[in-house]
Amino acid sequence: MDFDINEIVGTVERDGVAIIRGAIPPDLLQRIRDRVDHLNRAERESGIGFIESEGANQRVFNLVNKGEIFEEIVQEPAVMQIMTQLLGGDFILSGFSSNTTGPGGEPMLLHSDSGYVPPPHPEYLLSANAIWMLDDFTRENGGTEYVPGSHRQRCNPDPRREYTCVPILAPAGSIAILHGYTWHRTGANVTHNGHRRALFAYYVRPFLRVQENHLVSVREEVWHRASPTLRRLLGGELYLNSIGFIDGPPERMRKLAFPKRKAGAFV
Q: What is the pTM of this model?
């Protein structure tokens, strides 16, 4: 990917969203589309598909567990650099899913990806989303819509109010970086035969509870072949040596702590 990371980060912080056009090479884009189409069919046919809008829209969750191509792209280096800057240097993967909307698909409820955090949200960013656009995002086919400037409110939208939403318009192969406080939703698909496919890689600061419990759900072979980056993203490392351990801190931390306890430094 050839772009200025500082510029992208600055745009996200200023506008609530930034678009990287031409980010996905054509061959990779087609491979992702093929895999998403396969998963959509397979989960519908097996009766486990997550279907919305009376069958028009479909989501597939836990993508890291459903194809090596997703293991690859969820740790894409340029996106990792962007998230490092936005999320204070450390972050994990909260969820990774696909969203396909078809003709007749209804708009989603307007929300913030940090909506579960009691407002006002902190001044520092808690989460951010990387939207991999597998098809053109248009006004007509259900492209993601957002409320400009909403990320500066540091709260959730009022469900009793109406807001002016603006569509994120970009060609297939783009990646949009969405501020975690930006109010947004899936748009209405008013086409007769157009589908809009996208991936949503949702990253959060490591002290937040994640959407997908990867420690439980990810298959053993995925963990065995995971890179250090992917293991960290899936929550397989300690955060600040105090969050995420099993049966207390690891041995190395206990050895470091013992002399301080003996000297009375710990109470």
A: 0.92
